[in-house]
């Protein structure tokens, strides 16, 4: 009996061509292809064919069509077609009782705004609540931008109020649009408020937003002033960089573009910019958060004892993360805890703060080991005698102690810890990065020599001074701070160039360093690189 060969039994292998089982799936597949290739006419042709063949349509079909139509609603060549079919598709969707979702409403809002009907766009957004769907910021944008472009201020402000009620936050494009609207309709107080919204939302502004600010300040004079004492108090309370009390001074603005020296002094007006801290309310909230989490995770009696001790010993201007410094670069065979490194940091911080000792947080197990070492005992005893050491108890996490002390005393923190682990994630603070920038001192040891990286002399954020001037950083592709351009907005009396009057707009150049050139004096001002020593105490900040 013959044995069948392998080839006789083999089943021919054929690749199955990808097909869709039903007309609805095929229609969606082809629609998505048109969406990817931005083929509006192809999608409309598919839609007409689907209607002719009575294809059953669902939300995904309608959303894809609406998205394509809204994409072409601002294209001059396709606008009429996009608007005609866009509203036809939406009406068809509603006639079939298919509930729109956020994407559907965003698309129809864009179509409405494209034909100048901001009212309908906003009405559609408000109807999302009927379907238990929450809008996103993009859902509000069409109505907001439409009202802003048509200078319908009250309607635009109503949209903004609705955005706030939904717990959404405006971003630069929306704030800039509202700022321009307020400027164009002469609402000075609104302009002031939106400037502060920008300050809270972005570190620097785009060129487009910068142009809006230039146009406002170059044609507008401020009319009011505030008490100098209250302004200084407000700036101190707010952490520096702003007071929020309204326009200050009278007369026209002097508007320039320039740079800021490494020491934080504006090259255009000579004013010193602040290294901006979190404000009093944020600081208190931050300290309570740290203490609350520490009490949950530490032995309560131990941490409360530390809190009580800190209340009685609140004069420190710097906290030192002892373990972080002592173990720095010690991952080699003979490596251990470096008392020399820690002592170098202690002495340097003592000198920088005008002969005031820092507070070193160190675990008691580590301190006990150092005291048992004859070569280290005398130095450690000196630290203890000078009130330098606070030893944390067995089973504790040093991080809670040095973080709480730094926040509570509003002072500097010497550590290379980037504070990215789970402890700091638990805090979930939106102002944590600002706080770190203002308070953290990093360090290196190069061939045994200590080098400290102090907090920056100034913050690259929108700033409002006690004189009423404004400094606005403009977005820059370079990471070098010296290359960042700033919009300098001052009054003639507050500028180094006292002879200038009226409102001017000047473009500044950089020659041998960041500088600002006035129209009357074209001498380049070279910038020095001297920075003043800083203390973390807010009350000690340089004016």
TrEMBL record:
Q: Where is the composition biased (Basic and acidic residues)?
A: 519-531
Under catalytic activity, the entry for this protein gives:
Endonucleolytic cleavage of RNA, removing 5'-extranucleotides from tRNA precursor
Query: What are the GO BP annotations of this UniProt entry?
Result: tRNA 5'-leader removal
Chain ranges passing through the membrane: none
Q: Which domain of life does the UniProt lineage start with?
A: Eukaryota
Keywords tagged on the record: Hydrolase, Magnesium, Manganese, Metal-binding, Nuclease, Repeat, tRNA processing, Zinc
Q: Which Gene3D superfamilies match?
A: 3.40.50.11980, Tetratricopeptide repeat domain
Give all residue intervals belonging to the PROP1-like PPR domain.
15-222
Molecular function (GO) terms listed?
metal ion binding; ribonuclease P activity
Pfam families, per database record: PPR_long, PRORP
| InterPro entries assigned | PROP1-like_PPR_dom (IPR033443), PRORP_C (IPR031595), TPR-like_helical_dom_sf (IPR011990)
Task: Provide the PRORP domain boundaries.
Answer: 261-488
Residue ranges with Polar residues bias: 1-12
Give positions of region: Disordered: 1-22, 516-543
Q: What is its EC number?
A: 3.1.26.5
Enzyme class, first EC level, given as a word = hydrolase
Q: What cofactors are annotated for this protein?
A: Mg(2+)
Family affiliation? Belongs to the PPR family. P subfamily.
Protein name in the entry: ribonuclease P
Q: Which organism is it from?
A: Gossypium mustelinum (Cotton)
Please spell out the taxonomic lineage of the organism that makes this protein. Answer: Eukaryota, Viridiplantae, Streptophyta, Embryophyta, Tracheophyta
């Amino acid at each position: 009996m013959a044995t069948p060969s392998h080839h006789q039994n083999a089943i021919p292998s054929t690749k199955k061509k990808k097909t869709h089982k039903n007309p609805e799936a095929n229609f969606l597949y082809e629609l998505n292809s048109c969406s990817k290739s931005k083929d509006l006419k192809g999608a409309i042709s598919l839609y007409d064919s689907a209607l002719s063949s009575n294809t059953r349509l669902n939300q995904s079909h309608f959303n894809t069509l609406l998205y394509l139509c809204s994409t072409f609603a601002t294209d001059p060549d396709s606008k009429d077609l996009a608007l005609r079919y866009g509203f036809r598709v939406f009406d068809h969707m509603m006639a079939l009782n298919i509930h729109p979702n956020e994407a559907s409403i965003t698309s129809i809002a864009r179509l409405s705004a494209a034909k100048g009907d901001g009212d309908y766009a906003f009405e559609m957004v408000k109807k999302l609540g009927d379907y238990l769907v929450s809008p996103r910021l993009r859902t509000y944008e069409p109505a907001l931008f439409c009202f802003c472009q048509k200078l319908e201020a009250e309607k635009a402000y109503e949209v903004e109020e609705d955005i706030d009620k939904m717990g959404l936050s405006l971003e630069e494009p929306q704030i800039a649009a509202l700022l321009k609207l307020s400027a164009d309709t002469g609402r000075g107080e609104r302009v002031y408020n939106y400037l502060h919204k920008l300050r809270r939302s972005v570190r620097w502004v785009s060129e487009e937003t910068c142009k809006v600010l230039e146009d406002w300040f170059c044609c507008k004079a401020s009319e009011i002033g505030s008490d100098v004492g209250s302004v200084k108090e407000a700036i101190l309370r707010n952490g520096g960089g702003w007071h929020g009390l309204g326009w200050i001074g009278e007369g026209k603005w002097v508007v320039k573009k320039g740079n800021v020296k490494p020491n934080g002094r504006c090259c255009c007006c000579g004013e010193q910019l602040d290294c901006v801290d979190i404000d009093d309310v944020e600081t208190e909230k931050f300290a309570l958060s740290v203490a609350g989490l520490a009490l949950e995770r530490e032995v309560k009696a131990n941490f409360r004892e530390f809190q009580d001790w800190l209340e009685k010993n609140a004069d420190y201007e710097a906290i030192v993360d002892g373990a972080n410094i002592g173990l720095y670069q010690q991952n080699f065979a003979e490596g251990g805890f470096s008392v020399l490194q820690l002592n170098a940091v202690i002495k340097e911080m003592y000198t920088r703060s005008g002969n005031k000792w820092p507070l070193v947080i160190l675990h008691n197990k580590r301190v006990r080991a150092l005291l048992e070492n004859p070569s280290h005992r005398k130095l450690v005893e000196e630290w203890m005698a000078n009130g330098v050491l606070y030893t944390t108890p067995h089973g504790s996490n040093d991080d809670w102690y040095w973080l709480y002390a730094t926040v509570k005393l509003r002072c500097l923190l010497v550590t290379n810890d980037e504070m990215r682990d789970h402890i700091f994630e638990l805090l979930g603070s939106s102002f944590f990065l600002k706080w770190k920038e203002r308070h953290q001192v990093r360090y290196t040891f190069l061939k045994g020599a200590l080098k400290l990286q102090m907090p920056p002399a100034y913050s690259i954020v929108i700033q409002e001074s006690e004189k009423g001037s404004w400094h606005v950083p403009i977005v820059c592709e370079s990471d070098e701070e010296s290359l960042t351009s700033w919009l300098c907005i001052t009054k003639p009396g507050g500028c180094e160039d006292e002879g200038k009057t009226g409102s001017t707009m000047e473009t500044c150049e950089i020659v041998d360093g960041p500088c600002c050139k006035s129209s009357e004096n074209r001498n380049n001002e070279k910038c020095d690189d001297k920075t003043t020593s800083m203390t973390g105490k807010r009350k000690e900040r340089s004016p």
